[in-house]
Design brief:
Structural class: alpha+beta
Helix content: 40-55%
Distance between the termini: 43 Å
Shape: elongated
CATH class of the largest domain: Alpha Beta
Number of domains: 3
Order of helices and strands: HHHEEHEHHEEEEHEEEEHEHEEHHH
Strand order of the largest sheet: 4-3-5-14-6
Amino acid sequence: MTAITDLEIFARVARTGNMSAAGREMGLSPAVVSKRVSLLEERLGTRLFQRTTRQLTLTETGEGYFKRVVDILSLIAEAEDFVSRRNTKPRGVLKVTAPTAFSRLHIAPYLPQFLAKYPEIELDFHLTDSFVDIIREGFDLAVRIGELRDSSLVQRKLASDHRVICAAPKYIETYGAPSSLADLDFHNCLSAGAQDHWRLQGPDGEHHLKVKGNIRSNSLEFVREALLAGLGIGLRSTWDIGPELESGALKVLLPQYCGSDSVAIHAVYPCRDFMPEKVNVFIEFLSETYGPEPYWNQRLDLQKLLKSGRTIDAAAKKDSASESPRPKRKSTPAVAPT
């Protein structure tokens, strides 16, 4: 039977793609790691890795073996946690992946309180605006913003995500404001990642729009700065642009429309019978910090902002009425947001 240590070595090598890196993480020399992997392949009678001078990748058999090994190691960790959590405080390394801007604004400022309450937990954060395979990469938890449909993972809603259509005064002064959703065809709409499909809801139901613009980026923060510079129109979350809405640096457009309610801020973690206590307490901490109505929305006078947006909307309609008719938007297929 294969030793648990060999499974741990194999999993580390698979995740890092490098025997030296795996060895450093486990306090072993690259030679020892290479020998243990070779013995494991010999025992199993199959090659688990393709080796070249430049890289180390899993074979098809290795991929299938890795998925099962991850499950085995997770169950072992759960079993140990189940035994110890009744008698000890939450402890150990908590590995989290989360969006960059949201983490900077709404997670990092509250970590002193969390660590003061749970001093035996160590935090390892990986910040990215892309979705990460948390099982393959060995994360305990992901904070994700969107509409989640992956049934293989457990998800818990942490807070709502209220999104508004907005632009800087400089853009509105230069190019005018849209008076209808169809007018967005004639405006520069900025997108982050795959968010060039806007899912909106309004008094006339749901709308799925394919927007166009001359700037897109994998960084939400980059697009935010482009909006503030007056380069286009965006669909942005109030958690992200609350201060700019309050100061007038950004103005709400088409206030009768907002982002779909199905998009929210979630905690996502592998489906397990026994969730490690370190994961549970972190999710509870975030949920309590944000509250039933997120604190960033409580600070905003949304009614006042929407009223201001209606004033811009009325002015845009007046200007539009004096111009020649524009072609109507063609119907767009419904596409779920990412």
